[in-house]
């Protein structure tokens, strides 16, 4: 098989060889019901117990605190529901970061939710997170690291503040557990095996002793009543074995991949004009780097990269079924158009990264040319200066009608006309595309123009921009 | 590897060779996220679509009516919850058979439930099932075949009655789907792949178009919003492939296994005294046979059979974590002590059944001897006849104190003393064992003694038995 680089490990990693071996062995030894008393059942029980011990050791909890669920999403759903029900009498207020995985945000959709924002790097401020805790806060949720931009969150500090307030903290460790245990006094932790090279079909839910927890849904005897249904034992065995294996390699591999990510972080803005690298430069996962390209359609970019053999994902609106930009990029307030997340699986070769950096500039150029994007650099046009004008009042000097046009067209049209108004003049972009709300301010930021704000228009929204340079 | 017979296919079947092959192939081809646009994602999507078409074809529904869940139990939970929520305005009454799988009974535990009983063969009367439907019935649930005794239920007839009443019928087809599609106008159907030789980790939920359904739990985009979490694609591919494979062999294999089951049904009562074969003699699954042995401790019997190399399961109270007999045997009103379910996996050899029949009599004899069980046949003792006595009144002639003793001891003690009272005399057995409620009447039935009833005693329950012969 031809070697093809795959750069979407944060979504799903290919099966680790150890996982494959363990799965095959457990298909023969672990297909029976572990609750049965006969030979095959006892053998299955031994395998399940051993897997639980190995996983608990990697998580840093006791085996009887950990259950296996059918996915990371199901672990989050069960963990949140059980914790909320266990503290029903305290209240129904929940604190989450605004950049949690959608499974967490959906799990709390019926609660009274406070979302704590982030800075432009996606970093949650632990103090702000702690300050959001209230008397009636039943649960707080903070990811160990962000799945879209790789920013590592101050979970340890947040856990201290939660403990002081008597609020349990649930940590979604899906992106980081393969790299190391989550430090600190969390109360609940969730993870997903196919993110670390384990098989799909296995999530983890750890609930520390002393945490109030009332499992929801119909009664079931399996997995301490916290994860109903017949255990997928071969997959569980493979998940535990591969977690142990990736952990053994984690320090060395993290250093190696982190250097590759650094190269991408440095090289992309040099090689491609009008790019914003997003996510924290230091507090980050070793294998994730995300950037956004002005005047680029994310879906077209993904297709072009795919044609070149690179599999990446994107938080751009055009790649989502709802045509809205990723809630993570929105919360960070960064550009969402032409967004690319590169997440390197363990074992990624430096040569693959080289080739990606070779290919990327041409791919972006092609997509931009197809869209008729303006030339890079500061806005072109005459250096006229407009007369004095009251901010946000009166009429704009120019109106661009981008109604019905999708990201990145409204931004491209704005960029094309900004030079047509004098310095100090105002352009109004009419758009009904959800991404414009994020991308027009981000464009102003990148091009040092002044964003004046958004107003509801008879159709869509009017975004006002003052030409400054 | 030495060939060891495994007779608990109704619990979990060993992996079918086709499932194993498909799983291995899909581990390489189907690990990526099927919702991604790149090469690996598109390949995963194709596999998922093909598996859904194959499974829908075997179920007899449209592909867009079928979703994959992480287990049969989860399919039942999601199906029941969605159907109940979809018909919330109709009411919260549910009709189920008393012998449904525990996942169904647990799924309806918060509803207003009518349980429809069975006859002594475990058969539900369709008319009685239909008569239980009410104006406010939101859902009816009837298994295609019983998991403990193999009795096949009149689903087709029940579906007609449900349709006439405008009530959706959910059919738990876990035990039968490998043998054939469920006929008739059901509205929802659930199944579990590891029952037909597929891998664990895969259930099916089919919801026919036009059935009101509102998925419960947090929002999730996958599987039409009915089964949250990352799809376990390799397992799904293997499940669909093996369903197709077992169906191709089903007619021939059903005939072959059915003949083996007939041999067991005939031979066991001939070879072992005081045995009751339970379940319907004709309306039954091809591969399941269940019998109960008087004066036998189910757990000891399982252990002895395991030592001889046979893996079977039991509905006896001593093999359950709750120390209560199986709710199925209870609903049927049959003997629960010394209960053995033999469920043959596809490919079971006739020689294995021969050896089982060779071994069984000695094993039962050993267990009985260890418990000091009475000799077989009619009650020993003098042929005295007691004077006239009013039924259920006055004092018993003899009281046996079996308090604190577990099944089958109370029945053994009753059998030992029945000959000590004259014909017409009454023995009272004091017991606090839940199984006695089922097994003392069943013993009376088998030994042609008269069961007079149970009364609360200062401790435990007094079971009164009149010696008749």
Automatic annotation (TrEMBL), chains A, B:
<dbReference type="Pfam" id="PF00266">
    <property type="entry name" value="Aminotran_5"/>
</dbReference>
<dbReference type="Pfam" id="PF01206">
    <property type="entry name" value="TusA"/>
</dbReference>
<comment type="similarity">
    <text>Belongs to the class-V pyridoxal-phosphate-dependent aminotransferase family. NifS/IscS subfamily.</text>
</comment>
<dbReference type="InterPro" id="IPR000192">
    <property type="entry name" value="Aminotrans_V_dom"/>
</dbReference>
<dbReference type="InterPro" id="IPR015424">
    <property type="entry name" value="PyrdxlP-dep_Trfase"/>
</dbReference>
<feature type="domain" description="UPF0033">
    <location>
        <begin position="400"/>
        <end position="424"/>
    </location>
</feature>
<dbReference type="GO" id="GO:0031071">
    <property type="term" value="F:cysteine desulfurase activity"/>
</dbReference>
<protein>
    <submittedName>
        <fullName>Cysteine desulfurase</fullName>
    </submittedName>
</protein>
<feature type="region of interest" description="Disordered">
    <location>
        <begin position="374"/>
        <end position="396"/>
    </location>
</feature>
<dbReference type="InterPro" id="IPR015422">
    <property type="entry name" value="PyrdxlP-dep_Trfase_small"/>
</dbReference>
<feature type="compositionally biased region" description="Low complexity">
    <location>
        <begin position="374"/>
        <end position="388"/>
    </location>
</feature>
<dbReference type="InterPro" id="IPR015421">
    <property type="entry name" value="PyrdxlP-dep_Trfase_major"/>
</dbReference>
<dbReference type="InterPro" id="IPR001455">
    <property type="entry name" value="TusA-like"/>
</dbReference>
<dbReference type="InterPro" id="IPR036868">
    <property type="entry name" value="TusA-like_sf"/>
</dbReference>
């Amino acid at each position: 098989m031809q070697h093809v680089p795959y750069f979407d490990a944060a979504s799903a990693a290919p099966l680790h060889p150890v996982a494959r071996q363990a799965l095959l062995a457990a298909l023969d030894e672990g297909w029976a019901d572990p609750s049965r008393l006969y030979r095959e059942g006892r053998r299955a029980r031994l395998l399940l117990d051993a897997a639980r011990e190995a996983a608990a050791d990697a998580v840093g909890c006791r085996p009887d605190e950990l259950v296996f669920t059918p996915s990371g999403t199901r672990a989050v759903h069960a963990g949140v529901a059980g914790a909320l029900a266990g503290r029903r009498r305290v209240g129904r207020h929940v604190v989450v970061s605004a950049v949690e995985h959608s499974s967490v945000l959906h799990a709390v959709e019926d609660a009274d939710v406070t979302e704590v924002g982030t800075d432009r790097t996606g970093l949650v401020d632990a103090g702000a997170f702690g300050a959001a805790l209230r008397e009636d806060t039943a649960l707080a949720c903070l990811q160990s690291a962000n799945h879209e931009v790789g920013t590592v969150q101050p979970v340890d500090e947040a856990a201290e503040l939660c403990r002081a307030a008597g609020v349990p903290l649930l940590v979604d460790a899906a992106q980081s557990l393969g790299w190391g245990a989550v430090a600190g006094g969390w109360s609940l932790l969730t993870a997903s095996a196919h993110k670390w090279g384990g098989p799909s079909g296995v999530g983890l839910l750890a609930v520390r002793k002393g945490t109030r927890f009332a499992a929801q849904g119909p009664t079931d005897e399996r997995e301490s009543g916290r994860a109903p249904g017949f255990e997928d034992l071969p997959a569980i065995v493979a998940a535990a074995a591969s977690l142990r294996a990736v952990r053994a390699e984690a320090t060395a591999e993290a250093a190696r991949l982190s250097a590759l990510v650094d190269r991408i972080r440095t090289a992309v803005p040099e090689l491609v004009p009008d790019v914003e690298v997003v996510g924290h430069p230091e507090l980050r996962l070793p294998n994730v780097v995300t950037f956004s390209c002005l005047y680029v359609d994310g879906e077209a970019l993904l297709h072009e990269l795919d044609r070149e053999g690179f599999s990446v994902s994107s938080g751009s609106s055009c790649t989502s079924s709802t045509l809205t930009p990723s809630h993570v990029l929105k919360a960070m307030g960064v550009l969402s158009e032409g967004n690319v997340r590169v997440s390197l699986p363990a074992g990624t070769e430096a040569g693959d990264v080289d080739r990606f950096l070779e290919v990327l500039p041409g791919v972006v150029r092609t997509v931009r040319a197809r869209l008729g994007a303006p030339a890079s650099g500061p806005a072109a046009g005459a250096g006229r200066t407009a007369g004095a004008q009251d901010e946000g009042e009166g009429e704009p000097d120019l109106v661009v009608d981008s109604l019905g046009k999708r990201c990145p067209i409204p931004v491209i049209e704005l960029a094309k006309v900004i030079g047509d108004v004098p310095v100090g003049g105002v352009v109004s972009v009419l758009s009904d595309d959800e991404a414009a709300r994020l991308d027009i301010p981000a464009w102003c930021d990148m091009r040092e123009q002044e964003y004046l704000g958004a107003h509801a228009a008879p159709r869509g929204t009017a975004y006002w921009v003052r030409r400054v340079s």
